[in-house]
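Late entry, evening session. Most of the bench is empty. Finally got around to the prediction I had been postponing all week. Sequence below, unchanged from the version circulated by S.P.
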Amino acid sequence: MEMQMKFRVLGAKGFKGMVEGQHFDSTRLYVEMPVSEKNGTEVGFNAVALPFGKEEEYQKLKHLEFPLHAELTLEATTKGFEVRGFKALGLAPAASK
């Protein structure tokens, strides 16, 4: 099942290489999501790392300025959500210091 939603994307990370004899080739997007206020022990937002294909996806994104607003196509899998599509919508204001 796929769905399209708008998110504030905080950044991206790509990696392609060997670690302890195991090959990795991946991109992750760091997406701002609201925390669950269900238990009353959290409020606000947190960053969630979502997988977005191979490292070549990072190469397409690394020139962008972050944070930005983007429309993401998400697929629900047994491992959680995975990003299947990315469309930048514009810069998102950075948090004040």
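Two things to note before I forget:
The chain has one helix and five strands.
The mean pLDDT is 92.
Will write this up properly tomorrow.
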